[in-house]
């Protein structure tokens, strides 16, 4: 199932399908948040900020940016 | 005859060793080890990013800001990039717990063609987490030596010397090499060539003759490098069992709204008791009044009064703090010519509740040593009020930063700040603003885009009361009672909401989204915290000191030339009719430009009623920032924008103060 990252719930695993094409894309790739990567939603905090977990790395992403990232859920 | 022959100077070639790594990987600890006691700090031209360098044997060693990759996404990256480009040997400091994040930078450094050694730090933590890292294998895959270290425990630090000696050019990647060939004939330096391909704007500007569509190449290189990192990590690291550890749990709890808010409140309370109560009230009261004013300023003024015609004005207050009597002690020929009269003055001062003020009849003496003397007042203010305050704020900031709490706080605050066109990172300058708006305005440099810097600066200058002012406001408000406190807080919050919403609408440009690495929470290393605090405080003092002196000099000149009185007269109808305050309050507002707390303090003995107190305090909070922060703002945001914000505070303060006054009274 495809959705945007801001809709993902805590604990869900998913694959990054598409990142928005802007300068922030490279910053995300640097952290390993690249298209095709498997990532877990560690937490979602008040206001929709998403905390991603990839291996031991934890990354906080603002809600606006999360809305522009398309992911496929893994069951 | 003078003749200079540069070639006669001894020419020594020192190799430059650069420490590079992600934030919080322990670079500083390793740097300290190499530098010993003597490190030089300098600001990188055009930024507040400080560069720390030191000598180690025949090497010139440079520490760099923490970065995730060599590029130009912000000031810190630009500075790190410049230093790395000039480096001969790069020590790539890696957090062994975060190989997947950190090796991206390491691979990039190797692809730049630099001589590299990898320092695998935090190996003690690796054992605690039941991880196994094959550093021999890592060394083979990278083609550079790898050294295991636990900098916090001091283990393996003796190998740093060897790491410098044995650094070498690592395995070059095939794909990157192919791409490099595209630009090799135009850009001989491999490091610059790589950054060109990665779209680094500054390097591209340097080689305008090279015309290549690099957009696709840079993404290809980034993704390829990412994949290589993954392959390497898969080969050198075995799976972890991180869950269940105290600090990673704490990190989760700090983010969860249910537990995060109580943790936030607890931390804020602790910070308040440390900064707001212990330092800002108790310590500053001692340092500013007892040492600064009572001891140093008093004796300097007494010394000046020996040589010049002086009047000392003494205001005597009664038990209920009401002005009882004003006495004037005149010494037309200096105090030494009338020692008995001076003795009388000293007795009155020691036996009563008084305020006294040296008035020098010589304009120059008054300018430098008088009530708002460029030397006397500024020195006391800077060293006995601001210095302890700024130090305590930076200390708190360093602690929150190194413990890993600050990024979590920024993540929690993100939504709130995105509403006004900022992102969660803006919480740092805003919090610092409650300490010193000047310091906070400098810190807005860390924000992502020009738009964010403008919005944050304007909010700071408009609404945030600095601690000096906050202290006086608190005293006045508590004297006026709960009704006044409630009205003041509600009005200021409404104004904050209003101004930030308006700013979000009118300031052009784009805001950046929050992309923040949340490091594992841990107990910070005290030495590192002290070191950070020291360098930041030093940097602030260096930058702000001349501005504070300049600011007081400007106000002093306005006072001597009488311009200030014109101003006060001009403001008078506004204060008496529109704000419905006593006419002396105009003086208080203007004095607020010298130091914001002066403005509020001027209201002390005016016998304002509850509503007048609220009106006066609202106006003074919103009114122009102190002149030092005004100058910093001009420096940061340019003359035009600075003036717009400054004039805006005039307009806002009087409009809102007046509206409040008309409604309440």
Protein topology:
The complex is a heterodimer of chains A (75) and B (665).
Chain A: E1 2-4, E2 13-18, H1 23-30, E3 38-45, E4 49-54, E5 57-61, H2 63-67, E6 70-74
Antiparallel strand pairs in A: 1-6, 2-3, 2-6, 3-4, 4-5
Chain B: E1 15-21, H1 27-35, E2 40-43, E3 50-56, E4 59-63, H2 75-86, E5 89-95, H3 99-111, E6 115-121, H4 123-128, E7 132-133, H5 135-142, E8 146-148, H6 160-166, E9 168-169, H7 174-183, H8 190-197, H9 201-206, H10 215-236, E10 237-238, H11 246-255, H12 257-307, E11 310-317, E12 323-331, H13 339-351, E13 353-360, H14 363-369, H15 376-403, H16 405-418, H17 427-433, H18 437-443, H19 450-462, H20 467-480, H21 482-506, E14 515-517, H22 526-560, H23 563-578, H24 585-591, H25 596-601, H26 610-622, H27 627-637, H28 639-664
Parallel strand pairs in B: 1-4, 1-5, 5-6, 6-8
Antiparallel strand pairs in B: 2-3, 3-4, 6-9, 7-10, 11-12, 11-13
């Amino acid at each position: 199932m495809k959705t945007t990252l801001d809709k993902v719930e805590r604990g869900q695993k998913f694959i990054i399908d598409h990142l928005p094409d802007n300068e922030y894309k490279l910053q995300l790739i640097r952290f390993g948040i690249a298209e095709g990567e498997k990532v877990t939603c560690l937490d979602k905090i008040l206001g929709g900020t998403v905390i991603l977990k990839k291996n031991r790395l934890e990354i906080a992403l603002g809600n606006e940016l999360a809305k522009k990232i398309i992911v496929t859920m893994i069951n | 005859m003078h003749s200079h022959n540069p070639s006669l100077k001894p020419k020594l070639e020192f190799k430059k060793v650069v420490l590079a790594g992600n934030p919080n990987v322990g670079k500083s600890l390793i740097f300290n080890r190499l530098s010993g006691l003597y490190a030089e700090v300098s600001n990188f031209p055009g930024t507040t990013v400080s560069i720390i360098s030191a000598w180690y044997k025949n090497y010139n060693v440079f520490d760099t800001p923490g970065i995730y990759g060599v590029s130009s996404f912000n000031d810190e990256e630009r500075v790190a990039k410049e230093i790395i480009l000039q480096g001969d040997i790069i020590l790539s400091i890696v957090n062994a717990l975060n190989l997947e994040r950190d090796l991206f930078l390491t691979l990039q450094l190797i692809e730049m063609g630099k001589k590299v050694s990898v320092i695998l730090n935090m190996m003690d933590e690796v054992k605690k987490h039941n991880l196994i890292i094959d550093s021999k294998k890592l060394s083979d895959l990278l083609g550079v030596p790898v050294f295991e270290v636990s900098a916090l425990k001091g283990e393996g630090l003796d190998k740093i010397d060897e790491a410098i000696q044995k650094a070498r050019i690592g395995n070059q990647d095939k794909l990157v090499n192919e791409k490099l060939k595209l630009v090799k004939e135009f850009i001989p330096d491999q490091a610059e060539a790589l950054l060109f391909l990665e779209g680094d704007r500054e390097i591209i500007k340097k080689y305008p003759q090279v015309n290549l569509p690099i957009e696709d190449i840079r993404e290809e290189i980034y993704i390829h490098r990412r994949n290589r990192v993954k392959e390497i990590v898969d080969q050198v690291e075995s799976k972890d069992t991180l869950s269940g550890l105290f600090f990673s749990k704490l990190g989760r709890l700090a983010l969860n709204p249910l537990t995060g808010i109580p943790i936030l409140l607890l931390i804020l309370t602790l910070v308040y008791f440390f900064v707001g109560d212990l330092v800002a009230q108790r310590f500053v009261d001692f340092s500013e009044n007892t040492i600064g004013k009572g001891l140093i300023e008093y004796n300097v003024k007494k010394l000046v009064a020996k040589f010049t015609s002086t009047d000392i004005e003494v205001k005597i207050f009664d038990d209920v703090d009401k002005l009882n009597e004003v006495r004037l002690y005149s010494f037309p020929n200096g105090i030494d010519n009338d020692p008995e009269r001076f003795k009388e003055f000293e007795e009155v001062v020691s036996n009563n509740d008084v305020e006294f003020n040296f008035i020098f009849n010589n304009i120059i003496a008054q300018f430098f040593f008088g009530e708002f003397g460029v030397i006397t007042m500024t020195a006391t203010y800077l060293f006995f009020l601001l210095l302890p305050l700024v130090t305590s704020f930076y200390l708190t900031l360093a602690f929150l930063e190194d413990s890993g709490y600050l990024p979590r706080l920024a993540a929690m605050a993100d939504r709130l700040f995105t509403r006004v066109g900022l992102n969660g990172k803006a919480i740092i300058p805003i919090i610092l603003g409650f300490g010193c708006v000047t310091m906070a305005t400098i810190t807005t440099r860390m924000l992502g885009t020009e738009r964010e810097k403008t919005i944050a600066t304007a909010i700071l200058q408009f609404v945030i009361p600095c601690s000096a002012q906050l202290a006086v406001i608190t005293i006045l408000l508590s004297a006026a009672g709960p009704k006044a406190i409630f009205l003041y807080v509600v009005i200021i919050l409404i104004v904050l909401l209003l101004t930030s919403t308006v700013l979000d609408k009118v300031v052009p440009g784009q805001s950046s989204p929050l992309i923040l690495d949340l490091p594992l929470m841990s107990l910070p290393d005290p030495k590192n915290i002290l070191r950070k605090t020291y360098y930041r405080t030093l940097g602030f003092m260096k930058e702000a000191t001349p501005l504070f002196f300049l600011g007081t000099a400007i106000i002093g000149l306005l006072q001597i030339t009488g311009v200030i009185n014109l101003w006060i007269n001009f403001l008078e109808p506004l204060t008496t009719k529109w704000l419905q305050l006593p006419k002396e309050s105009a003086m208080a507002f203007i004095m607020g430009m010298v130091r914001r707390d002066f403005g509020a303090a001027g209201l002390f003995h005016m016998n304002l009623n509850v509503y007048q107190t609220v009106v006066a305090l609202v106006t003074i909070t919103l009114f122009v920032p102190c002149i030092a922060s005004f100058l910093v703002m001009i420096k940061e945001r340019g003359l035009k924008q600075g003036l717009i914000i400054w004039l805006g505070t005039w307009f806002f303060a009087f409009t809102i103060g007046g509206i409040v006054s008309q409604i309440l009274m």
